[in-house]
Amino acid sequence: MARRRTRSRLRQRPIRLSIRVVDSSTNTAQQTILTPRPGRWIRFIRNKLLQDSSEGRFLWELYFGDAPNMITDPNKGVDILAVPGSGATATRVFRRGQGPRGQRNEVLSGRWRGFAPSSPHNIIIEYIEER
Question: Which of 8, 56, 78, 113 has its CA at 20 to 30 Å from residue 63's CA atom?
Fold first, then answer.
């Protein structure tokens, strides 16, 4: 009797997507947006910035670590968002396991590049904490 060759299926863990909403700062200094639980990594999925009032176009840097800006360590950069005069902007959405991932216990930071708005913007971050 011949043996059947079958591939075993990999069972993936269910995704526990987390969402965090924070207000942006109104200056160009580094702002810690998200801190993982001890011993965990942050896997970035998506970011969205909402601007309520029409103040002009701004650039928002998003990166891992607590450096003063993304230029200090460009390899840790996630994205630079161009926020329109009024409305919202978002990064691309990463599929499961494909988004940028920080180091263990590394924070997710952001800052305004160039000029900062006078009113806070809402920052919505979708992420997964991995072990």
Answer: 56
The conformational region for residue 87 under phi > 0 = left, psi -120 to 50 = alpha, else beta, is left
Whole-prediction pTM value?
0.83
Token digits of residue 27:
């200056």
Looking at residue 85, its amino acid is G
Nearest to 101 by CA among 19, 40, 20, 17: 40
Nearest to 124 by CA among 19, 9, 14, 5: 19
Domain count for the chain: 1
HSE-CB at 27 with a 13 A cutoff on CA atoms is 4
Domain that holds residue 101: 19-130
